[in-house]
Amino acid sequence: MGGMVALPVPRSGIDRSPERIGGVHTSRNGSKTVDHFGMKRSWSLAFDWRYQHELEAIRLMHYGAITGPYRLIDPMVRNRLSAEVSSTGSVRYDGVTIPQIAEGTAGVAQDWPPGISAMPLSSSIEWAPPDAGGVLASSAASAGVPLVLGDTVTFSAYVRCLTGRQVQAVIQAYTAAGVSATSVTGSSSTSAGWQRVTATLTPSSSDAVAVVSLTSPSGTGVIRTAAWQVEAASVATPWMLGGGCPEVVLDQMSELSPYFPMSDAGLTLLEV
Amino acid sequence: MQYPDDVELTQALSAHNRRFSARLMVDWNRNGLYDHPYSDLSKLVVEATTDRSMEGALPENATLIEGYSAAQLTLHLEGRRAYGEPNAAQLFAPYSTRSPLYGLPRKNTPAYYEIVVHTVTGVRTIRQFTGWTREIDASSADGTATLRCLDFAEPLRAPITLPRWAHFQRADEGRLINSQWLIDHILRRNGYHQSPPMVPDCRFSATLHGARIVESGVPFGGEDSTGPANAWTQGRYGLALAASSSAIQVIGSGSHTNLPHSNGVTYGFGTFVEIGGSGLGETTFSARYGSLDYVALVISAAGQVSARFQRYDGTTSTWNATGPTLSGTGWVYVGMEATVAASNMQVRFNVDGAITSTTAARWAPANTNLPSCGATLQRPAQCLQHWQSTTRTNNWSWTPQFAPTATLSQGLNLLSHLPDILDEASWDVLKELVHAEFGTLFADEHNHVWFLNREDARQSKSTIDREIGPDQLVDVSVSDPSDAIVNCIAVSSTLGMYKITKRNWSATNDDQLTFPAGSTTITVTDVPDSWTFFPTVPYWDNATWDNGDNPVYGFFPVHASTGSTAPNVTISVNQLSQRSFSFTVSNGNAYAIRLADKALTDANSPGTPRLRVGGTGIIYWPTKKNMLVNQASIDIHGRRLWEIPDTRWAQSYSGQAVIANSLLAELASPLPVLDHVSIVGDPRLQLTDAIPIRDPDGLGEYILGQVVGIRQTLGSNGLSADLTMRLLNPPGEGIWDSPTYGIWDQSFIWAT
Shortest CB distance from A22 goes to which of B43, B83, B718? Predict the structure, then answer.
């Protein structure tokens, strides 16, 4: 992880349609039922009139010369967490419990902070940390949010401390080798109503990937949390559904040279 | 149906927008923990199809609810779980050392598959299949693999040998074996238990699930012909021997042995009994030497549990250690362990898991001859187990953690004897048994085995599981052929009975007839219908031999060359098993003898053999044929005959008549089969579910059917199901306000 490289600016009109995996049933009366097994995106990028060195990173990935997995930061999506983690279980396609990794017990609750999204989502996470303290994390270190040097990132999450136990936002950065690096503990809350807690990290040169989490060092009882967001900003902005840096694979690369030494290249990226 | 009461799950599945994921786990480490790094293959699943359908024995089209079902799971796997891992084909490539599964057995590995449904209150995991991998196809070109799994039919391949068993000489219908005992016996041999398995160090076990046959050791021959008839009642797990007017004996194996009596030996007893006023007298369960030295678990008529010790050394001494008193009603586990200590007996009692302890004076048998084990029951009981150990204490034959892995109906078929089954595949024998009474046998999604008799299969669903409305119904077609009508059923029955003196074997070829001077031993195997062999064969004068019972057993020797009667010959028999023996001919003459009525002077006229070995065994009564008819159906459709196949399981007429009448009731005017019901998938569906279909503009407003086949696919068309259903209620029952069935004329039938 780490070593994020900016791609050349692609041609406008990028097809980035999400594909619904599943099927449609048409019953005897014409009634439709849609089954979803997953939602995956693909990106068809075209690069016009480029020198070879500008396409070098793409070619290296396409030949497999760079060890993956590859992550794409899609600048159209502000929230760099996955849709599952950012929606705290409202969007789910995998797994059997909750998308976050919890110490203690956790399930979903039908509760969502009012007014923070275009429409209320279905579920928040109800988390009962161990009394001695626990962590509710976005992911394992290897699947965290990749950091770009110079991009300050802010983690925000809505929390309700139903029993008054304190909860705080944390960003833990790791190096490319997976060793713990910078750690930031942000704001905290003990409020029984919905409140937003945030933490902001300015990456150092050794910080490659960030794992965001909530911690509750002590106390008893349950905490609800919803609407997680990690964005390239120094303050938290309104919540949007995640999906800003998916893991992708390279499908096909095309290259046409209209005029030496320039190339028109095409690249299809598929969300895994 | 699984989870019928989960409201959120029902809402999620009947919504028009549904979210699912698949979960596939394979136990490559075979430790039950599913902890191999590649145990979770969920991400590779592209398409998963579960197929459950009944394979029956009735005429084609007469698809009543009967037969066995071996469920299959077919998985199409593609892609890789994560970057850098092998793809599906590489993973399953059998000869690739780069596969993380290299060296591990791929076939016959436990696996399960679940559908995860996303509801408003979180995910629900619904088990679809539990079984074993059976076949793996991997395609290198497109990196895909197809994995096929089979459910309980896959491990049910243990060879089964049944002990010889038949009822005592007379055809007393009250002593017939209920087929539940046999189905249970075979399932137990394959690790499926409706009641607790045998404990380690078990020396005696009788489940009493429909027969008084012990499951360990060689069964004691025959059955007490003078005691009361067997009656069966529902126990805590399956059938139990009911209380009767007098004591019933359950006697242990003929080969029972006791551990050498010494300090540290524990004698343990466990059983389930019914309490609540049904005890007629004292129930004892004992391990004995002869009849006078024993240790026993005793339950008095009033429910007092105690340990009893008896020693006979010229005078009889009996003493008890008193335990708890049973109270309340219903079935309860009662166990007793007595450990021999230096100065006393350490006694423990176990009543449904509550253990109490006490001591008693030290017991040592005065005699060590004639060990045996058995029980005298005067209250309903089941699952008798006796164990002896020098290393284990608190080795109870039941613990509260026991969870049955099988549920069995009382069988409709009644058996007079156990057929001669030697090393046959369990699954094949089970299929025959189920066919013989037209029951159903299947494993559910959790690998729990179900046997339902005809009546239970039909009546098991008095409640409706879910409804298929127009929004969920994609297509339905109905089949109503006249081939399905049967109004005359022919049944055959052949009783087998235990006989205490019979001819078990006769010499037939010359190898078994001519013996040189001295002693010669010959071994005979695979003797049919034998049980025990008498140790001697008597001399029987040639003049009185005939082709019948003169003699039942005996021999007659002649000089092999001259044909004159030979003196100085004796024959002894040594039993090797129920099916084999050896016999030794001691020829005290200087010449060879022949056991025939003459010398062998002409190969074309060898004479008649004169060697018959006697013993106990099974004899068969002539096959009885009967016809059962339904006259009302004959009046409409004419005679339509079907014969129940005359198999080795068609033994008693009373059993066959119950089965045939049950079949006639349905086949005389069979209901149509919905052979293709295509619906929006539902992972909760199970075999035998009762489901109404509402198709007002198609085949009918309200069709209540029972599921006899499910094929459910999760794939590119979403989750879809194809069902085969049999109608449960004939059209014509009145439904309020129904335009079709609400007509107030004679077609309106008032429900009772």
Answer: B718
Residue found by looking up tokens 């499926």 in the block? B192
Provide the pLDDT for residue B687: 86
Would the CB atoms of A93 and B19 count as touching at under 8 Å?
yes
Considering only the beta carbons, identify the residue of B471, B476, B698 that sits closest to A31.
Answer: B471
Q: If you count residue pairs, one on A and one on B, with CB atoms under 8 Å apart, how many are there? A: 104
Prediction pTM value: 0.85
- Asked if B75 and B48 touch (Cβ cutoff 8 Å), the reply is yes
Contact A68 B714 (CB under 8 A): no
How distant is the alpha carbon of residue A236 from its chain centre?
Answer: 15
User: What are the tens digits of pLDDT across the range B510-542?
Assistant: 777 899 999 999 999 989 888 889 999 999 998
| B83 touches A at CB < 8 Å | yes
Q: State the burial class of residue A127 (Cβ atoms within 10 Å of its Cβ: 0-12, 13-18, 19+).
A: buried
AA identity, residue B465: D
Q: Which of A27, A68, A94 sits opposite B474 (nearest CB)?
A: A27
Q: Count of CB atoms within 10 A of residue B370's CB?
A: 11
CA distance B333 to B274: 9
What is the mean pLDDT for each group of 10 consecutive residues in chain B (752 residues)?
91 90 94 94 94 72 67 93 89 88 91 92 91 91 92 85 76 76 94 94 91 71 58 92 72 73 95 79 90 93 94 94 92 96 96 95 91 87 94 94 95 90 91 89 92 79 75 83 82 86 88 89 91 92 89 94 93 90 95 91 85 91 91 90 90 89 83 84 90 81 84 92 81 52 51 46
B616 alpha carbon, distance to own chain's centre: 26
Secondary element (H or E) of residue B635 = helix B631-637
Question: How far is CA B539 from each of CA B565, B569, B609, rounded to the nearest angstrom?
Answer: 11, 9, 14
Distance from C-alpha of B17 to C-alpha of A50, rounded to nearest angstrom: 45
For residue B713, the chain A residues in CB contact (below 8 A) are none
For the stretch A8-33, pLDDT in tens is: 999 999 999 999 888 999 988 888 99
What pLDDT sits at residue B63? 52
Amino acid at B595: L
In whole angstroms, give the CA distance from residue A245 to residue B684.
36
Alpha carbon separation from B308 to B340, B360, B482, B546, B699 (Å, rounded): 13, 9, 66, 55, 70
DSSP designation for B81: S
> For the structural domain made of A83-231, what CATH number should be given?
2.60.120.260
E strand or H helix that includes residue A127 = strand A124-128
Q: Please list every residue in chain B whose beta carbon sits closer than 8 Å to the beta carbon of residue A35.
A: 18-20, 681, 718-719
Among B184, B233, B18, smallest CA distance to B681 is for B18
Say which DSSP state B435 is in: H
Specify whether the CB–CB gap between B134 and B149 falls below 8 A. Answer: yes
Choose from A29, A31, A33 for mutation: most chain B CBs within 10 A.
A33
Give the number of other Cβ atoms within 10 Å of residue B383's Cβ.
Answer: 24
A108 vs B715: CB contact, 8 Å cut-off?
Answer: no
Helix, strand, coil share of chain A (percent; to 5): 5, 45, 50
What are the domain boundaries of chain A? 18-72+246-271, 83-231
ipTM of the complex: 0.84
Q: How far apart are CA B20 and CA A94, in angstroms?
A: 8
Q: Which residues of B touch A34 (CB under 8 A)?
A: 16-18, 718
Q: Does B600 touch chain A (CB under 8 A)?
A: no
Residue from B611, B564, B610, B567 nearest B590 by CA: B567
Q: How many CB atoms lie within 10 A of CB B527?
A: 20
**Which residues is B289 bridged to in the sheet?**
B293, B371
Strand partners, B118: B123
Contact criterion met (CB < 8 Å) for A27 and B470: yes
